[in-house]
Structure formats: structure tokens, C-alpha cells
Amino acid sequence: MTSERLFLGVGQSATGLKWVDRLGQREANIALAMAQNHGFPDIVTRVLAGRGVGLDDAAAFMEPTLKSLMPDPTSLTDMAPAAARIAKAIIARETVAIFGDYDVDGACSSAILSRFLAHYGIANQIYIPDRIFEGYGPNPAAMQELAKQASLIVTVDCGTNSAAAIDAAKVAGTDVVVLDHHQVGGNLPEAALAIVNPNREDDLSGQGHLCAAGVVFLTLVQTSRILREQGVKLNTNPPDLLSLLDLVALATICDVVPLKELNRAFVVKGLLVARTQQNVGLAALARVSRIGEPLNAFHFAYLIGPRINAGGRIGDAGLGARLLTLDDPDEAMRIAQELDRLNQERQAMETIMLEQAEAEAMAELSSSSGPAILITANDDWHPGIVGLIAARLKERARRPAFAIAFNANGTGSGSGRSINGFDLGKLVRGAVEQGLLVKGGGHAMAAGITVERGKMGALRAFFEEQSAEMVGQLRGNASLAIDGALSAAGATVPLYETMEKAGPFGSGHPQPVLVLPHHRLIDARSVGINHIKVTLAGADGKRINAIAFRAVGSDLGDFLFRQLGQSVHVAGNLALNHWNGSTTTQFRILDAAKAV
Prior knowledge:
Blueprint: E1 18-21, H1 25-38, H2 42-49, H3 58-62, H4 66-69, H5 79-91, E2 96-100, H6 104-119, E3 124-127, H7 140-147, E4 152-156, H8 163-171, E5 175-179, E6 194-196, H9 212-230, H10 245-254, H11 262-274, H12 280-288, H13 297-314, H14 319-325, H15 329-366, E7 374-378, H16 386-397, E8 401-406, E9 411-417, H17 424-433, E10 439-442, E11 446-452, H18 456-476, E12 479-482, E13 484-485, H19 493-500, E14 514-527, E15 531-537, E16 543-548, H20 555-562, E17 567-579, E18 582-594
Parallel strand pairs: 1-12, 2-3, 2-4, 4-5, 5-6, 7-8, 13-14, 16-18
Antiparallel strand pairs: 8-9, 9-11, 10-11, 14-15, 14-17, 15-16, 17-18
């Protein structure tokens, strides 16, 4: 953001934020020139300019292509030996084991590689560790067992920091190739035959924004090239790698990696593949999620992704990866229904845990400004859900938050989520160095910790000492960046469709935040469990339906009910609503303010 100009003069909104114009004068000038040169709607050019797109790049940005954005796979360190080893396994018809992470990226990465190998008739198995009993990444016992069954183990979305486990596999006589994207936490595993990770220090490819599925895809591009150049007769045509882009897109969105450069092309092209429903597992998930419209990034992030994750959180961690490899519609539907059931169970558990966590947090916040970092803990919480609780607390209290589940031995597994501008991973690493945590790690916006109950008091004090000043400053300057203003009459389906070409939106490429200024709030009522449905009317009488998710009982919800019949400014995202065969625009409310 290059400007701190108040938007519509809103210095304090219903949620306590100031609204600032995302565009400074320079960006505003670029937006105007884009509209004149390319004929795009003004609001769309403001979105582009506000995200750093230059005047000369606008047309290409609106139509990203793999051809123009795909790097040479061998620009990634260790790609040549990694792809060569996978190609050798295919030519020699070896058995391959795939060790994946238990999240969406791990499931998609595993399924992509498994489908590629299966196309050539290569026997392969996917191993996903149990989140509770095994934890993240390869462990020696599992790798030794896999080494008995396969001559090559490929770790996907993990392995970079698993030296002991990879040593165990090598001692057992099995080669290990690592395809990962996580930050390096120490020395790389010397026993690995190859480690392809664009975030290793000696990788100069500039592809550090990729998720693991993107790394796997590039590896298979190079593997296919090797097989083709060697002229190997494999009694089958090469696989259609583009048909796997639906899984690359799903992983890219759900792993919240920056939606820029190649990642944008992956998602744009992957969503087109997903809409053809070639992957029967993905199609089954769409059906159980009751999605009655063309798949988009929102569906991946909030409907399909959570169902795949539900297996890893509270059920069988391997269900998601298994589902995405299936070609049998009946078996796919059975697993999709099981994941849907687990997701409902996870939601019920989350609701109870969140009520308890919020009660504890609000008690801390009621007496004063409260701690800079919220820490809630409970002996009855499920450790697979604490990350979701931390995210909700962070949203509610607008400060970093941790949720910790303690076991009977007094050891807590916790997860934290941060606010923009505060590096939570650095704070956790500092706590580890001070001996306050058994272990911990993460990145700026999220972290995981293991803590002993007896260290909780000292941990709270350390967190407060290290974060109070900076978190206080960030909270005091909390703002909502606005891309532009729109009227109910101007919020048309064609405008939405053009704006979507500036996407996909997500991490590193934020969803456009628009304001409906001076619109009369003519209806507001509770729907579902805790949502608020609103009808807004512009000065010309044109109406638009809007919804504020999880707003009942919040500052935003209270404001909407109080302002019924009044003129308000409403900030949010433009969306589409498909109902009974018709498509209309809808507004998703993020914030509101009095119109003065």
C-alpha cells in the first residue's frame, strides 16, 4: 500500500478499522492509463494497479499462460538427478513409495505423482503419516518399512528437514528423492539422492513461491522430457500432464502460497480442468459439498479443501490422497462421503472448542487491553483443530493467537496465527532458544509449538515482553485497504467476470475490497447459524443482496442491526450467486461505517 489517504473519510469503522485507499497517486494514474489504453473498466484497472501490475503488463496479466510463465525445470537445484531417478524407476519398472504430508498440498502432490506412475503401469503406494502419532514428515520407522517394499521413495511436501528418516531409508538400501517447498531448518539430508526445493539456499530458480504440488508438476515435466529424449518404448503414449493441473490448482490455493507468476497460471488453467470433472475424486467432493455452479477458487479453499483436511485432522490421514487417485466413481463417492462426515464432525468439535477458547480469551481482554498475544489452552481439545481455533481468535481479537491442546502427560500441542506485520515464526524460534518450548517452528503468519504445562507462565511472559510494543503499534494502525467504490447498479455479472480475470485472488494477491457508498440498509436478518443477510439500495433505488458471514454477535453484526433503515458505507467483496438457473451478483460484507 502506497497511500494512507482515508477512503470516504472513514477513520473508525464498525470493526474499529480506518479505511485507506490502496492506491497512491502514482497507482491511480497507472489505473487511469490502463482504462484508456486497454478499455478495461475503471474498477478493474484500479485492482490491477493496486497489485503492482504495470501499464505494459496489463493485457498479458489478464490472460496468464503456462507457456510464458513456465521456467525450465532444470533451473531448480537437483532437478536433473531427481527426474532422472524417477525416469529410471519407470524404465526399470521398479516399485515406488510416495511419502506425503497430511494436508491438501501433500494429498494433491501424492496423487499427482501416483497418477503419473500408474499411467506407465508402475506399482506405487502412498504413505501419509498420522498427524497425532507420527507428526509431520518422514520418520525412521515408516521409512524403514517402506524400504522393504520399494527401491525408490519420493517424499512430497516434506523431507527437507528429515535427515534421520532419510538416513534410515538409505541404510535399508533404498534411494530417496525429496520434492518439497518448506523452509530449510538446518543442514540438508546428505543421504537423499536429490532434494528439489526452490527454497533451499543454493536454489536460484526464483520459484520459491511454489507449493509442493507445483514442484512435483515441474519434476514430472522434466521426467517426461527425459523419457522422450531417451526414446524409451513404454508401450503407452505419454500422460497428459495438463490434465493434472486441477490438483496443482487445488494445492496452490489451499496451501495459501502467493498467487503470482506461475502459481496464477496453475490456478487459472487448473480451474478450467476441474470444471470438466475428469478427476472422479474431485468431482465426488464437489457433489458432497453441494456445489451447484462452476468450480472456483472459493470452492477449493472453503469447501473442498477442508473436507480433504478433515481426514488428516481427525480421521484417516490417507483418505484425501487415496480419493484423488481413484477412477472408480462408486468408491470415490464412498470416500468423499466419509470425508464429508469427518468434516461435519470436525465442525462440531470446532464449534465447542471455539466457544471455550473465546470465553477464555474474552475474559483476558475484558479487564484491560489484554495481552499482545492471546494464548488459550484446554485438556479436552483435539490437537488437529487448534490451528483453526487460533485463526478464529486472531480474527476476533485482531492480534496473534495460539490455541494449545494438552494431553494427559502435560504436554501441549499448539498452533498460532499472526497478523500482518508480525513474524510469529521468529518469535517461536526465540522461545525455543530460551528453552521455553520443547520444539517449535513456522513462518511469519503461522507457527506450531510443543510446550510443557509447567512452562506456560514463563512462555506467556516471554511472548508479552517480545511482542507488546510491535503488536500494539500494528493494532493501533489497523486498516482496511480499499480498491474503489461501486454502486448496486454497477455491480453487474459482466463486471465481476472481467474482474475475475485479474485473479485468482488469495495470498500475495488480495481479493478486491470494494465499497458501496451511501447505500440504504433496507433489511438485515440472521440466517444459518450466525450469518446476517442484508439488502442494500443505492440512491437510484437499485438493490443488491449482501451477506456478512459469522457476524451475529460481533461488532459488525451489531452495527448492521442498529443501522437498519439508515444510509451506510459497506465494504466487502463482489461475488456471484447461482440460484434456480439464474446468476446474480452478491456482496460479501467485511466492514461497514456510518455515511456522513
